[in-house]
Write a structure and sequence with these properties.
With 510 residues, the protein is α/β, with parallel strands linked by helices. Helices cover 36% and strands 19% of the residues. Helix 4 runs parallel beside helix 8.
Length: 510
């Protein structure tokens, strides 16, 4: 290895790497700020203009896009014609490329960034050099990650960089440039106002390896979006406990989605992505008590999400049972110390929580493809409700119905939720018919069903669900409406003195 080209935005570890290369007799070519920094630190540097015979121009936009650079990278060293051509033109091969790119991601992450700033941080020469070197990796070693500097140096000192390492680094380069381009395309597509482009490219970065997926025989890993917002699971800080599992992450995400619905202190308990207990109260302790009492059996081994800081009193109550995860915006120091007494309990600090008004794009894999849809962030208020029955709900009943509606939105279809005193008392999820879900919810509620409120994620195709509700003593129902047989359900509600309101919107969740 005789010549290396170094041009990096992130200069972490580059000085030490360059000094080691110099000690091994490698000539170092460099550009702009990198060349200046290395020169000031005593590294002998050949400026890019000395190689190209052309000055850096256009505020640095044009410096490495030159045949003297790319021919030196792309020449096949074992091909006589290639060797002859570059020798005749006085072009020398480049054996090592060390490049990382303009900070586009960091730029668009800043508040109030301008479009012009974003455009200026789209790297052109860097990706081009990386791709040239990675394509010709049989002869050129290419490094895009500072973590690989020691690996390359070690192999150089022990006979040369192996072809296996070169192939691995080449693949890493194309992953890196693909991710870089994906962020740029996503940003520009949004700026252009295109909602459903003809091609959709996304990128994620690995957060952690997982022991297995849903079951021990399935391999899995957790990837996060590069620009994930705070208050999401991918940006949460784990303060204590075992590593999260695949199922932990899935369930925790479900709990987090529900708890964000509420402005009041709220606690959500989830099992197998469905809520088994939801409560709101004046304090987070009150909310937890309600969530726990919703279903004291199912909450065992569950996932807890709170939308307020966990205090000592609440922590003491939580510690009484086995829980997999407790996540909250924060924890009091006393609460944290107390909960850390349970060795395997996972504690996650979420930071500020809020329901996003702008929906994210949700992806769901299918065989041979992917489904993409907007996140369901639709919310309603009392003004959106249409009273369909003779009996009108009171203002207090409306508030109770809206609470039930926020919960049923996050239960697997077909979904029926019963609530009372701002607490879930029965949840029927994922049944093949709606009346089946209603019967499960009513059975779970037991005697509490009398005087409770029922929410359905979609319309009643017939009156049987209303009739079951009447038998249980349910006093008010909230549902989307829209069935051709709505009149039958309305008639059944009127017959039994039940108030029923339509939302005009459904919340299927599969």
């Amino acid at each position: 290895m005789r010549r290396a080209l170094i041009s990096v935005s992130d200069k972490t570890g580059i000085l030490e790497f360059a000094l080691e290369l110099q000690a091994l007799g490698v000539e170092i070519i460099s550009t702009g700020g990198t060349a200046k920094m290395l020169d000031e630190k005593g590294v002998k540097v050949t400026g890019i203009a000395e190689v190209t015979g052309f000055p850096e121009i256009l505020d640095g936009r044009m410096k490495t896009l030159h045949p003297n650079i790319h021919s030196g990278l792309l020449a096949i060293r074992d091909k006589e014609e290639h060797r002859r051509q570059i020798e005749e033109l006085g072009i020398r091969p480049i054996d090592l490329v060390v490049v990382n790119l303009y900070p586009f991601r960091e730029t668009i992450s800043k508040q109030n960034v301008t479009y012009e700033e974003a455009i200026e941080n789209i790297d052109i020469g860097g990706p081009t050099m990386l791709r040239s070197a990675a394509k010709n990796h049989a002869y050129v070693t290419v490094v895009v990650d500072a973590l690989d500097y020691p690996i390359v140096l070690n192999e150089m000192k022990n006979g040369g960089v192996t072809i296996e390492t070169k192939r691995r680094l080449s693949a890493k380069v194309f992953r890196h440039t693909a991710a870089y381009d994906a962020l740029i395309s996503e940003y520009l597509t949004k700026q252009a106002g295109e909602e459903w482009p003809e091609q959709y490219t996304v990128t994620f970065e690995k957060a952690q390896d997982l022991r297995y997926g849903e079951n021990p025989h399935q391999k899995a890993a957790f990837y996060r979006k590069p620009l994930a917002k705070s208050g999401t699971l991918s940006t949460a800080e784990q303060l204590h406990g075992k590593e999260l599992s695949y199922n932990n992450i899935n369930d925790a995400n479900a709990a987090l989605s529900i708890v964000k619905e509420f402005d009041q202190p709220a606690v959500v308990a989830v099992k197998h992505t469905n809520p088994c207990g939801v409560g709101i109260g004046n304090t987070i302790f009150d909310a937890y008590q309600k969530a726990y009492e919703s279903d004291p059996v199912s909450i065992f081994g569950g996932i807890i999400a709170a939308n307020r800081k966990i205090d000592r009193l609440t922590a003491e109550k939580m510690k009484e049972i086995f829980l997999e995860i407790i996540m909250a915006p924060d924890f009091d120091e006393e609460a944290l110390d107390l909960l850390k007494g349970k060795k395997n309990l996972r504690l996650l600090r979420l930071g500020e929580l809020k329901m996003e008004s702008e929906p994210e794009l949700l992806l769901s894999s299918v065989s041979g493809g992917v489904l993409a849809q907007e996140e369901d962030v639709k919310q309603i208020s009392s003004e959106d409700l249409r009273v369909m029955t003779d009996r009108k709900p009171t203002q207090e009943e409306v508030e109770q119905l809206l609470f039930a509606w926020k919960v049923v939105k996050h239960v697997k279809s077909n979904a029926i939720v019963l609530t009372k005193d701002f607490q879930t008392i029965g949840v029927g999820a994922g049944q093949m018919n709606r009346v089946g879900s209603a019967k499960i919810a009513i059975e779970q509620a037991g005697e509490k069903a009398a005087g409770s409120f029922l929410a359905s994620d979609a319309f009643f195709p017939m009156s049987d669900t209303v009739e079951e509700a009447a038998k249980a003593g349910i006093t008010a129902i909230i549902q989307p409406g829209g069935s051709i047989r709505d009149e039958e359900s309305i008639e059944a509600a009127n017959k039994n003195g039940i108030a029923m309101v339509f939302t005009g919107i459904r919340h299927f969740k599969h």
